[in-house]
Amino acid sequence: MTTTPFVRDQWYVAAYGYEVGRELFSRTVCGEPVLLWRTEAGEVTGMSDRCVHRRFPLSQKPSHLVGDQVVCGYHGFTYGADGACVNVPGQRRIPRTARLTSYPVVEQDSFVWVWIGDRELADEKLIPRAPWLDQPGYTTVSGMEPLAARHGLLVDNLLDLSHETYLHGGYIGTPEVAETPITTEVDEQAGIVRVSRHMEDAVCPPFYAESTGITGRITRWQDIEYHAPCLYLLHSRIAPVGTPPPDADGGDPDAFHVEVVYAITPETENSTHDFWAVARDFALGDEKVSGFLHDNNRTVVLQDVVALDVLEKAVAAERDGYQELSINIDTGGLAARRILKRLAEEAAR
Amino acid sequence: MSAAGAPGAVGVPGGPAPVDDGVYRIHWVPGTDRLLAVCFCGEKREFEDPVELWDWLLAHPEHGA
Predict the structure, then answer these.
(1) Contacts of A223 in chain B (CB under 8 A)
(2) Do B10 and A194 touch (CB under 8 A)?
(3) What's the predicted TM-score (pTM) here?
Protein backbone atom coordinates (compact mmCIF):
# COMPACT_ATOMS: atom_id res chain seq x y z
CA MET A 1 0.00 0.00 0.00
CA THR A 2 1.39 3.37 -0.95
CA THR A 3 0.95 6.42 1.23
CA THR A 4 -2.56 7.80 1.07
CA PRO A 5 -2.15 11.26 -0.52
CA PHE A 6 -3.59 14.32 1.14
CA VAL A 7 -6.92 15.41 -0.27
CA ARG A 8 -6.68 19.18 -0.67
CA ASP A 9 -9.53 21.60 -1.31
CA GLN A 10 -11.41 20.12 1.62
CA TRP A 11 -12.55 21.08 5.11
CA TYR A 12 -10.76 19.39 8.00
CA VAL A 13 -11.26 19.43 11.73
CA ALA A 14 -8.24 21.19 13.21
CA ALA A 15 -9.38 21.36 16.83
CA TYR A 16 -12.25 21.32 19.24
CA GLY A 17 -13.60 24.77 19.95
CA TYR A 18 -12.64 24.35 23.59
CA GLU A 19 -8.98 23.93 22.65
CA VAL A 20 -8.75 27.38 21.08
CA GLY A 21 -8.75 30.50 23.22
CA ARG A 22 -6.58 33.52 23.91
CA GLU A 23 -3.43 31.42 23.93
CA LEU A 24 -1.71 30.78 20.60
CA PHE A 25 -2.51 27.23 19.50
CA SER A 26 -0.95 25.25 16.68
CA ARG A 27 -1.92 22.11 14.83
CA THR A 28 -0.49 20.74 11.60
CA VAL A 29 -3.15 19.77 9.05
CA CYS A 30 -2.18 18.05 5.78
CA GLY A 31 1.40 19.10 6.37
CA GLU A 32 0.52 22.76 6.96
CA PRO A 33 1.20 24.23 10.42
CA VAL A 34 -1.90 26.23 11.29
CA LEU A 35 -1.95 28.84 14.07
CA LEU A 36 -5.34 29.21 15.73
CA TRP A 37 -6.51 31.77 18.27
CA ARG A 38 -9.64 33.68 19.29
CA THR A 39 -10.01 37.37 18.72
CA GLU A 40 -11.23 39.53 21.56
CA ALA A 41 -14.69 39.22 19.98
CA GLY A 42 -14.45 35.43 20.35
CA GLU A 43 -14.01 34.50 16.68
CA VAL A 44 -11.51 31.76 15.83
CA THR A 45 -8.94 32.83 13.28
CA GLY A 46 -6.43 30.65 11.44
CA MET A 47 -3.13 31.52 9.78
CA SER A 48 0.24 29.99 9.03
CA ASP A 49 2.24 29.15 12.13
CA ARG A 50 5.47 30.40 10.57
CA CYS A 51 6.68 34.00 10.65
CA VAL A 52 7.32 35.19 7.09
CA HIS A 53 10.71 36.51 8.21
CA ARG A 54 12.72 33.56 9.50
CA ARG A 55 9.97 30.95 9.88
CA PHE A 56 9.83 31.12 13.68
CA PRO A 57 6.70 29.27 14.84
CA LEU A 58 4.30 31.92 16.09
CA SER A 59 2.81 29.42 18.54
CA GLN A 60 6.21 29.24 20.26
CA LYS A 61 6.83 31.44 23.26
CA PRO A 62 7.83 34.21 23.64
CA SER A 63 5.50 34.88 20.67
CA HIS A 64 2.28 36.27 22.11
CA LEU A 65 -1.00 38.03 21.51
CA VAL A 66 -1.49 41.75 22.09
CA GLY A 67 -5.16 42.45 21.63
CA ASP A 68 -5.97 41.06 18.18
CA GLN A 69 -2.37 41.02 16.98
CA VAL A 70 0.27 38.28 17.08
CA VAL A 71 3.79 39.36 17.93
CA CYS A 72 6.56 37.03 16.79
CA GLY A 73 8.78 36.11 19.71
CA TYR A 74 11.94 36.11 17.61
CA HIS A 75 12.18 39.56 15.93
CA GLY A 76 8.85 41.20 16.67
CA PHE A 77 7.06 40.95 13.32
CA THR A 78 3.44 41.68 14.17
CA TYR A 79 0.35 40.38 12.36
CA GLY A 80 -3.34 41.21 12.45
CA ALA A 81 -6.19 38.69 12.64
CA ASP A 82 -6.28 38.54 8.83
CA GLY A 83 -2.59 37.55 8.69
CA ALA A 84 -1.41 40.90 7.31
CA CYS A 85 1.80 42.20 8.83
CA VAL A 86 1.24 45.51 10.62
CA ASN A 87 4.68 46.08 12.09
CA VAL A 88 8.28 45.09 11.36
CA PRO A 89 11.29 45.89 13.52
CA GLY A 90 13.47 48.92 12.89
CA GLN A 91 11.79 50.31 9.80
CA ARG A 92 8.59 51.97 8.66
CA ARG A 93 8.15 50.19 5.34
CA ILE A 94 6.31 46.89 5.59
CA PRO A 95 7.33 44.59 2.73
CA ARG A 96 4.48 43.85 0.34
CA THR A 97 4.85 40.10 0.85
CA ALA A 98 4.74 40.32 4.62
CA ARG A 99 1.49 38.45 5.02
CA LEU A 100 0.77 35.10 6.62
CA THR A 101 -1.30 32.61 4.67
CA SER A 102 -4.71 32.75 6.31
CA TYR A 103 -7.15 29.87 6.42
CA PRO A 104 -10.92 29.93 6.10
CA VAL A 105 -12.22 28.81 9.50
CA VAL A 106 -15.70 27.72 10.62
CA GLU A 107 -16.64 26.75 14.16
CA GLN A 108 -19.51 24.26 13.99
CA ASP A 109 -20.80 21.30 15.98
CA SER A 110 -18.06 21.87 18.60
CA PHE A 111 -15.31 21.51 15.97
CA VAL A 112 -13.02 24.12 14.44
CA TRP A 113 -12.95 23.35 10.71
CA VAL A 114 -10.22 24.75 8.47
CA TRP A 115 -10.12 24.75 4.68
CA ILE A 116 -6.94 23.28 3.22
CA GLY A 117 -6.42 24.27 -0.40
CA ASP A 118 -7.57 26.97 -2.77
CA ARG A 119 -9.44 29.41 -0.52
CA GLU A 120 -11.58 30.57 -3.46
CA LEU A 121 -13.22 27.15 -3.37
CA ALA A 122 -14.02 27.22 0.35
CA ASP A 123 -17.77 26.85 0.79
CA GLU A 124 -18.96 26.30 4.33
CA LYS A 125 -22.09 24.57 3.08
CA LEU A 126 -19.79 21.66 2.15
CA ILE A 127 -18.93 20.96 5.79
CA PRO A 128 -20.63 17.74 6.91
CA ARG A 129 -22.64 18.03 10.10
CA ALA A 130 -22.44 16.27 13.46
CA PRO A 131 -25.15 18.23 15.29
CA TRP A 132 -25.44 15.93 18.32
CA LEU A 133 -22.10 17.14 19.67
CA ASP A 134 -23.50 20.56 20.46
CA GLN A 135 -27.22 20.06 20.77
CA PRO A 136 -29.74 20.01 23.63
CA GLY A 137 -30.95 16.50 24.34
CA TYR A 138 -27.48 14.98 24.12
CA THR A 139 -24.51 14.73 26.44
CA THR A 140 -21.12 14.40 24.80
CA VAL A 141 -17.66 13.25 25.83
CA SER A 142 -14.72 13.73 23.51
CA GLY A 143 -10.98 13.69 23.01
CA MET A 144 -8.18 13.52 20.47
CA GLU A 145 -5.41 10.96 20.26
CA PRO A 146 -2.29 11.39 18.11
CA LEU A 147 -1.87 8.52 15.68
CA ALA A 148 1.54 7.68 14.21
CA ALA A 149 -0.05 6.17 11.15
CA ARG A 150 -1.34 7.41 7.80
CA HIS A 151 -4.98 8.46 7.79
CA GLY A 152 -5.95 5.76 5.31
CA LEU A 153 -5.33 3.11 7.96
CA LEU A 154 -7.81 4.78 10.30
CA VAL A 155 -10.37 5.00 7.50
CA ASP A 156 -9.91 1.26 6.86
CA ASN A 157 -10.27 0.61 10.58
CA LEU A 158 -13.48 2.58 11.06
CA LEU A 159 -15.22 1.38 7.91
CA ASP A 160 -14.92 -2.24 9.03
CA LEU A 161 -16.20 -2.63 12.57
CA SER A 162 -15.83 -6.41 12.57
CA HIS A 163 -12.46 -5.71 14.18
CA GLU A 164 -14.34 -4.76 17.35
CA THR A 165 -14.80 -8.46 18.10
CA TYR A 166 -11.06 -9.09 18.18
CA LEU A 167 -9.33 -5.81 19.03
CA HIS A 168 -11.95 -4.45 21.42
CA GLY A 169 -13.31 -7.60 23.07
CA GLY A 170 -14.46 -6.86 26.63
CA TYR A 171 -15.19 -3.23 25.75
CA ILE A 172 -17.38 -2.84 22.65
CA GLY A 173 -16.69 -6.09 20.84
CA THR A 174 -18.86 -9.19 20.99
CA PRO A 175 -18.93 -12.24 18.69
CA GLU A 176 -22.02 -10.99 16.88
CA VAL A 177 -20.25 -7.97 15.37
CA ALA A 178 -17.92 -10.07 13.26
CA GLU A 179 -20.62 -12.66 12.53
CA THR A 180 -23.33 -10.31 11.24
CA PRO A 181 -23.40 -9.48 7.51
CA ILE A 182 -23.24 -5.86 6.41
CA THR A 183 -24.98 -3.88 3.74
CA THR A 184 -23.17 -1.07 1.96
CA GLU A 185 -24.33 2.02 0.08
CA VAL A 186 -22.02 4.34 -1.81
CA ASP A 187 -22.92 7.74 -3.16
CA GLU A 188 -19.91 8.24 -5.37
CA GLN A 189 -20.73 11.81 -6.33
CA ALA A 190 -21.34 13.00 -2.77
CA GLY A 191 -18.35 11.06 -1.45
CA ILE A 192 -20.42 9.26 1.17
CA VAL A 193 -20.09 5.60 2.19
CA ARG A 194 -22.73 3.96 4.37
CA VAL A 195 -22.20 0.60 6.03
CA SER A 196 -24.93 -0.97 8.14
CA ARG A 197 -24.81 -3.91 10.48
CA HIS A 198 -28.00 -4.76 12.38
CA MET A 199 -27.63 -7.35 15.12
CA GLU A 200 -31.08 -8.43 16.26
CA ASP A 201 -30.04 -10.56 19.26
CA ALA A 202 -26.59 -9.87 20.64
CA VAL A 203 -24.59 -9.81 23.85
CA CYS A 204 -24.57 -6.35 25.40
CA PRO A 205 -20.90 -5.31 25.70
CA PRO A 206 -19.72 -3.54 28.87
CA PHE A 207 -19.58 -0.17 27.06
CA TYR A 208 -23.34 -0.21 26.64
CA ALA A 209 -24.35 -2.40 29.60
CA GLU A 210 -22.78 -0.08 32.15
CA SER A 211 -23.90 3.15 30.50
CA THR A 212 -27.52 2.13 29.78
CA GLY A 213 -28.13 -0.30 32.64
CA ILE A 214 -29.33 -3.01 30.26
CA THR A 215 -28.56 -6.43 31.72
CA GLY A 216 -29.88 -8.81 29.05
CA ARG A 217 -29.37 -9.33 25.35
CA ILE A 218 -29.82 -6.47 22.96
CA THR A 219 -30.76 -5.40 19.50
CA ARG A 220 -27.70 -3.50 18.31
CA TRP A 221 -27.63 -1.45 15.15
CA GLN A 222 -24.49 0.10 13.71
CA ASP A 223 -25.12 2.51 10.86
CA ILE A 224 -21.96 4.15 9.56
CA GLU A 225 -21.86 7.30 7.44
CA TYR A 226 -18.42 8.28 6.21
CA HIS A 227 -18.22 11.70 4.62
CA ALA A 228 -14.88 11.68 2.84
CA PRO A 229 -12.32 12.75 3.66
CA CYS A 230 -12.67 13.85 7.29
CA LEU A 231 -15.94 13.06 9.07
CA TYR A 232 -17.10 9.64 10.23
CA LEU A 233 -20.42 9.09 11.97
CA LEU A 234 -21.55 5.88 13.66
CA HIS A 235 -25.24 5.92 14.56
CA SER A 236 -25.52 3.29 17.27
CA ARG A 237 -28.96 2.07 18.42
CA ILE A 238 -29.14 -0.14 21.49
CA ALA A 239 -32.34 -1.68 22.86
CA PRO A 240 -33.35 -4.75 24.86
CA VAL A 241 -34.37 -7.60 22.57
CA GLY A 242 -38.09 -7.27 21.85
CA THR A 243 -38.14 -3.46 21.84
CA PRO A 244 -40.29 -2.16 18.97
CA PRO A 245 -38.37 -0.73 16.01
CA PRO A 246 -38.40 3.03 15.39
CA ASP A 247 -41.71 4.59 14.35
CA ALA A 248 -42.25 5.61 10.77
CA ASP A 249 -41.71 9.21 11.83
CA GLY A 250 -38.35 8.36 13.43
CA GLY A 251 -39.55 8.26 17.03
CA ASP A 252 -37.79 5.59 19.04
CA PRO A 253 -38.53 6.25 22.69
CA ASP A 254 -37.60 2.83 24.06
CA ALA A 255 -34.12 2.61 22.56
CA PHE A 256 -30.80 4.16 23.55
CA HIS A 257 -28.93 6.13 20.91
CA VAL A 258 -25.24 6.87 20.81
CA GLU A 259 -23.70 8.99 18.08
CA VAL A 260 -20.04 8.12 17.78
CA VAL A 261 -18.17 10.74 15.77
CA TYR A 262 -14.62 10.66 14.46
CA ALA A 263 -12.77 13.37 12.61
CA ILE A 264 -9.89 11.87 10.67
CA THR A 265 -7.44 14.69 10.03
CA PRO A 266 -4.10 13.99 8.37
CA GLU A 267 -1.21 15.64 10.16
CA THR A 268 1.58 14.44 7.89
CA GLU A 269 1.72 11.66 5.34
CA ASN A 270 2.34 9.21 8.15
CA SER A 271 0.51 10.68 11.12
CA THR A 272 -3.08 11.56 11.91
CA HIS A 273 -5.15 13.48 14.43
CA ASP A 274 -7.74 10.99 15.71
CA PHE A 275 -10.60 13.12 17.06
CA TRP A 276 -13.33 11.09 18.77
CA ALA A 277 -16.61 12.02 20.41
CA VAL A 278 -19.49 10.06 21.92
CA ALA A 279 -22.89 11.76 22.20
CA ARG A 280 -25.77 10.00 23.97
CA ASP A 281 -29.45 10.73 24.37
CA PHE A 282 -29.78 9.07 27.81
CA ALA A 283 -28.38 9.68 31.30
CA LEU A 284 -28.09 13.31 30.27
CA GLY A 285 -25.67 15.24 32.42
CA ASP A 286 -24.89 12.15 34.53
CA GLU A 287 -21.21 12.66 35.33
CA LYS A 288 -20.66 9.06 36.36
CA VAL A 289 -21.92 7.82 32.99
CA SER A 290 -19.94 10.54 31.20
CA GLY A 291 -16.78 9.54 33.03
CA PHE A 292 -17.30 5.88 32.22
CA LEU A 293 -17.99 6.49 28.52
CA HIS A 294 -15.06 8.87 28.21
CA ASP A 295 -12.58 6.50 29.80
CA ASN A 296 -13.95 3.40 28.09
CA ASN A 297 -14.06 4.96 24.63
CA ARG A 298 -10.60 6.44 25.06
CA THR A 299 -9.33 2.99 25.97
CA VAL A 300 -10.91 1.63 22.78
CA VAL A 301 -9.39 4.43 20.69
CA LEU A 302 -5.98 3.77 22.23
CA GLN A 303 -6.31 0.07 21.38
CA ASP A 304 -6.74 1.19 17.77
CA VAL A 305 -3.82 3.60 18.09
CA VAL A 306 -1.49 0.86 19.31
CA ALA A 307 -2.58 -1.47 16.51
CA LEU A 308 -2.42 1.13 13.75
CA ASP A 309 0.94 2.49 14.89
CA VAL A 310 2.32 -1.04 14.55
CA LEU A 311 0.54 -1.48 11.23
CA GLU A 312 2.03 1.77 9.90
CA LYS A 313 5.53 0.46 10.55
CA ALA A 314 4.71 -2.80 8.83
CA VAL A 315 3.18 -1.07 5.81
CA ALA A 316 6.00 1.46 5.55
CA ALA A 317 8.57 -1.34 5.49
CA GLU A 318 6.84 -3.59 2.98
CA ARG A 319 8.07 -4.17 -0.53
CA ASP A 320 6.41 -2.45 -3.48
CA GLY A 321 3.46 -4.27 -4.95
CA TYR A 322 2.50 -6.14 -1.78
CA GLN A 323 -0.75 -7.93 -2.55
CA GLU A 324 -3.28 -7.66 0.28
CA LEU A 325 -6.49 -9.63 0.45
CA SER A 326 -9.97 -8.15 0.70
CA ILE A 327 -13.14 -10.00 1.71
CA ASN A 328 -16.82 -9.14 2.14
CA ILE A 329 -16.30 -7.05 5.27
CA ASP A 330 -14.05 -4.70 3.28
CA THR A 331 -16.72 -3.62 0.79
CA GLY A 332 -17.21 -0.20 2.37
CA GLY A 333 -13.54 0.36 3.11
CA LEU A 334 -12.61 -0.32 -0.52
CA ALA A 335 -15.17 2.27 -1.62
CA ALA A 336 -13.77 4.82 0.84
CA ARG A 337 -10.22 4.26 -0.42
CA ARG A 338 -11.31 4.78 -3.99
CA ILE A 339 -13.22 7.97 -3.17
CA LEU A 340 -10.20 9.37 -1.32
CA LYS A 341 -7.98 8.59 -4.31
CA ARG A 342 -10.40 10.25 -6.71
CA LEU A 343 -10.76 13.36 -4.54
CA ALA A 344 -6.97 13.67 -4.26
CA GLU A 345 -6.58 13.37 -8.02
CA GLU A 346 -9.30 15.92 -8.71
CA ALA A 347 -7.80 18.44 -6.30
CA ALA A 348 -4.33 17.97 -7.82
CA ARG A 349 -5.52 18.99 -11.32
CA MET B 1 -33.98 8.64 24.37
CA SER B 2 -35.56 10.83 21.74
CA ALA B 3 -35.78 10.26 18.03
CA ALA B 4 -33.94 7.45 16.33
CA GLY B 5 -30.48 8.59 15.38
CA ALA B 6 -30.05 5.81 12.90
CA PRO B 7 -31.19 6.21 9.33
CA GLY B 8 -32.04 2.50 9.27
CA ALA B 9 -30.47 -0.27 7.27
CA VAL B 10 -29.89 0.16 3.60
CA GLY B 11 -32.16 -1.71 1.20
CA VAL B 12 -32.40 -5.45 1.15
CA PRO B 13 -32.76 -7.87 -1.76
CA GLY B 14 -36.34 -8.11 -2.86
CA GLY B 15 -37.06 -4.66 -1.50
CA PRO B 16 -38.31 -1.67 -3.45
CA ALA B 17 -37.13 -1.25 -7.03
CA PRO B 18 -33.84 0.63 -7.40
CA VAL B 19 -34.03 4.33 -8.05
CA ASP B 20 -31.68 6.30 -10.25
CA ASP B 21 -30.16 8.21 -7.35
CA GLY B 22 -26.52 7.59 -8.19
CA VAL B 23 -26.13 5.25 -5.22
CA TYR B 24 -24.52 1.82 -5.48
CA ARG B 25 -25.93 -0.77 -3.11
CA ILE B 26 -24.17 -3.94 -2.06
CA HIS B 27 -26.09 -6.61 -0.18
CA TRP B 28 -24.68 -9.62 1.58
CA VAL B 29 -26.85 -12.45 0.28
CA PRO B 30 -28.41 -14.02 3.39
CA GLY B 31 -26.98 -17.35 4.38
CA THR B 32 -24.15 -17.20 1.85
CA ASP B 33 -20.72 -15.66 1.42
CA ARG B 34 -21.81 -13.87 -1.75
CA LEU B 35 -22.33 -10.18 -2.35
CA LEU B 36 -25.05 -8.80 -4.59
CA ALA B 37 -24.05 -5.58 -6.33
CA VAL B 38 -26.95 -3.40 -7.44
CA CYS B 39 -26.24 -0.47 -9.72
CA PHE B 40 -28.49 2.58 -9.50
CA CYS B 41 -29.62 1.79 -13.05
CA GLY B 42 -31.04 -1.52 -11.85
CA GLU B 43 -28.38 -3.92 -13.14
CA LYS B 44 -27.36 -6.58 -10.60
CA ARG B 45 -24.65 -9.19 -10.32
CA GLU B 46 -23.36 -11.50 -7.59
CA PHE B 47 -19.72 -11.70 -6.57
CA GLU B 48 -17.48 -13.56 -4.15
CA ASP B 49 -14.80 -10.87 -4.18
CA PRO B 50 -15.44 -7.22 -3.30
CA VAL B 51 -12.55 -6.04 -5.49
CA GLU B 52 -14.08 -7.68 -8.57
CA LEU B 53 -17.45 -6.35 -7.46
CA TRP B 54 -16.25 -2.75 -7.46
CA ASP B 55 -14.45 -3.19 -10.78
CA TRP B 56 -17.73 -4.27 -12.36
CA LEU B 57 -19.95 -1.78 -10.56
CA LEU B 58 -17.83 1.23 -11.46
CA ALA B 59 -17.34 0.22 -15.07
CA HIS B 60 -20.99 -0.69 -15.43
CA PRO B 61 -22.71 2.65 -16.14
CA GLU B 62 -20.50 3.20 -19.19
CA HIS B 63 -20.68 -0.21 -20.82
CA GLY B 64 -24.09 -1.20 -19.57
CA ALA B 65 -26.03 1.77 -20.90
Answers:
(1) 6-9
(2) yes
(3) 0.93
